Amino acid sequence: MPDSTPSQAERILAIDLGKFTSVACDYRVADGSHRYTTVKTRPRVLHDLIVERSPDRVVIEIGSAAGRVRDLCEVLEVELQVANPNHGADSGVALEECEAQDRAG
């Protein structure tokens, strides 16, 4: 995956990952337009969503499906930004840091 510093994205796909169903918001920075979609939280469905929307960046919160989304973004060469709500409202924490914390207990 490229540099962990977020670039200036024009199209952002924010996905609220649920256990069975996820809500995605396709947001265009230039004009503020946005579109919401509900999808099944399955690797193939998430893959197709990312390919269809072709965002500059995908934004997710840490959760059980975060690793799958990271893998999809890596394969599709899409920038990924991961937020950890346990680290304050405005701090994004790298997925690797959160996984390391989980392994440490």
How does this model look, in words?
This protein has helices spanning 43-53, 66-76, 95-104, and strands spanning 11-16, 21-28, 34-40, 57-61, 79-83. The longest helix has 11 residues, at 43-53. It has a 5-stranded mixed sheet with strand order 3-2-1-4-5, with helices on one face. α1 (43-53) crosses α2. It has one domain (11-104): ATPase, nucleotide binding domain (Nucleotidyltransferase, domain 5). Helices cover 30% and strands 30% of the residues. It has 105 residues and is of the alpha/beta class.
Mean pLDDT metric: 83
Relative helix content? 25-40%
Task: Find the CATH superfamily.
Answer: ATPase, nucleotide binding domain
What fraction of the residues are assigned to beta strands by DSSP? 25-35%
Radius of gyration: 13 Å
* Main sheet summary: 5 strands, mixed
Number of helices: 3
CATH architectural group: 2-Layer Sandwich
String of helices and strands:
EEEHEHEH
| Strand segment count | 5
Low-confidence stretches: 1-5, 90-94
Query: What is the name of the CATH topology?
Result: Nucleotidyltransferase, domain 5
Task: Based on the model shown, name its key terms.
Nucleotidyltransferase, domain 5; 105 residues; five-stranded mixed sheet; 3 helices; alpha/beta; disordered N terminus
